[in-house]
Target: GTPase Der
Amino acid sequence: LPVVVIAGRPNVGKSTLFNRLVGRRQAIVSDQPGVTRDRKEGEALLRGRLVRLIDTAGLEEAAPDTLFGRMRASSEHAVAAADLVLFCIDARAGVTPADKHFAAWLRRQNKPVLLVANKAEGAAATAEALEAYALGLGTPLALSAEHGEGVAHLMSEIADRLPDTAPAPRHDAEEDERPAGPLRIAIIGRPNAGKSTLLNRLLGEERMITGPEPGLTRDAVAVTFDDGHGPIQVVDTAGMRKRARVEESLERMSVSASIEALKMAEVVVLALDATLGVHEQDLQIARLIEREGRACVLALNKWDAVEDRAATRRAISDRIETSLAQMRGIEVVTFSALTGAGVDKLLPAIRRVYGIWNSRVTTGELNRWFEEALERHPPPLVEGKRLKLRYMTQVKARPPTFLLFGTRAEQVPESYKRYLVNGLRETFHLPGIPIRLQLRGTR
Ligand code: GDP
Model:
């Protein structure tokens, strides 16, 4: 199991944090003689990852000299074996000389460190916590182990930093982890956009592995093929479209078929008949893709029949991007499913957006950008008071989802959220995919 060590001077709340993280799992308190006596260990399940947690509290009496000497002596063994160190300070007390010495020593150990500013229940303490930036150990995570505030966030931050080992048994919060198996795509679009022709073309050119196999719904079928870069599964809802054709209006049916296909896919190929331009229904489908948080490639089919190609391409992508801010920078592929010309560009484009959709930005990079963004364009006044935004962290990928902390952060107006999302998109190269920004007020 990956080893996570909680270190810091006495009374910063290490044991409280230990108990929080271990939760109901039994703590194993070992009673070995010598330096390791009273060493407290437990297993904690953090966002689906099982870790061995070691609390260095109780070791502090072991060494006689200065406070820093005691901290160091008590942590040395544990830190040497650690995959990650949680260095705790007391946010209310601020950064003490012993904290500084210990931080300097810790930096030299070349271990991944998460700086935890505990006892940060309340805005003033959060401000103190931010002073801890000066320790050179990255962004301090303000939390209250006692009250449980910010602990879930800490758990994700820990999970993000663990070495890659087998994940623990399945757990809800694992949702954003990349599942095993083929990359799942769906080709959706209005009737006659050329979806079936495209699918046949793709399957005609690639080696088919399995298929057709039943999909997840009554009328969907799935086909898995390999283009030499790994397996891809296409969910085809052709059957569903046919049934709907009889029973429902065209408008309703292609949207409901799209919803089904969307739910099964990671990347959605939005197929358009380029000779017809963008129809309101195409936008409706694009909105669904955005709402479901899927990655998307805009596939402009029937390119053989398009006369002014440059103008058509521009008109279509402009229309999509102005209607849907989240589609800014969307990947556009033009081809003819009928002749096959250009179809070879589709799979590489799908893999590109899939990669972007799975992106992760480190908390350090994120906050360096965030500080600049705040400076360039400070948060607006709300009810006469300026919002104090503290820091940001990426809580999940697929699609990239960021959590913004600050005093009354939940009051951030839409326009400012858009400013931040656009900044994230540009700075971290996340074009054409939905980006989620969640707000979390600290008190
Ligand atoms: P679906 O309803 O989206 O599955 O569309 P189909 O694949 O059934 O295609 C609808 C019609 O468009 C058929 O008559 C196809 O031959 C035609 N079609 C499909 N792709 C192309 C293309 O790239 N160029 C042209 N000119 N016609 C196409």
Summary: The longest strand covers residues 388-396. Residues 189, 191-197, 301-302, 304-305, 336-338 surround guanosine-5'-diphosphate (CB under 6 Å). The chain has 13 helices and 19 strands.
